[in-house]
Amino acid sequence: MTCQPRIDPSQSDAPQPDPRREVIGVGGRDFEGARSPLERVLNVIRHPRRILSWLRRRGGYKQGWNHLGSDRRSARAMVDSSRDEQEFARRGRAVAELLADALGLDGSQRVVEIGCGPARIGREIAPRCREWIGLDISGEMLRLARGRVGHLSNVSFHELEGARLDTLADASVDRLYCHSVLAHIDKEDMYRYLREVRRVLVPGGLAYLDTWNLLHEAGWAWFEKSAAQAPLTGRKESWRPQFATAPEFRELIRRAGLTEILLVDESHLLQAFVTVEAGPEGIERERRRLLPLLPGLIGID
Fold it and tell me: What is the pTM of this model?
């Protein structure tokens, strides 16, 4: 059964929505008027430069994301459609604060982001880590990321080759997050990444993962509009949105050897916190710690 923590607003001690949510999209337009995730994807699909150059992206994920990361404007368009660097940093800080609290960062952990892109989140979260490592399949995205974090001494980047975290040793990562990345890849590759997360996490480590939720009304509407934009050639873009259901996501997590702490399906996102070898008491302790944070986390963008 999917964990759907619901908090009764009539209770005097019920957690209140985090005010930092005011700068983060939640499937529609946010309070700042920025584009929703769906609008961002459809905008890129409609962009003539993207359509006319699809042949150059037949190399799969890497070539596709290298193309999108070839300049700051297209990279921002795929990440959050910020209008300038200042807005990009502000929105990155808002997400980073929420994730840092959820992951319990205290400055002592080695933290990994899978699919760091131009370091929208990483630039803001790295100061709360002992070491922050950004992984991405796109060398072009990493080029942009390096340009944004030159002032930080505790960061490093590695370019991925396929769904493997080859540069990371077994049980070497304290915290890991993968936000708005699994939603762009096939389930076979998602499963491979999940197995790698299981391999690199230390016992009792914590990871946050999300993907798009087919069974939520906003997710389904997004799916229908995305399907209507699919190319008639039969070959689909490597960065197109893809969707899952909570049972699928849960089964992939379990089969990968990860232990679920929470899986929330109350928004267009399926959001999971997972661990390895934590034991029942450790799992319950993390679950109790996370529950009050959920109002701010649900549907983060």
Answer: 0.78
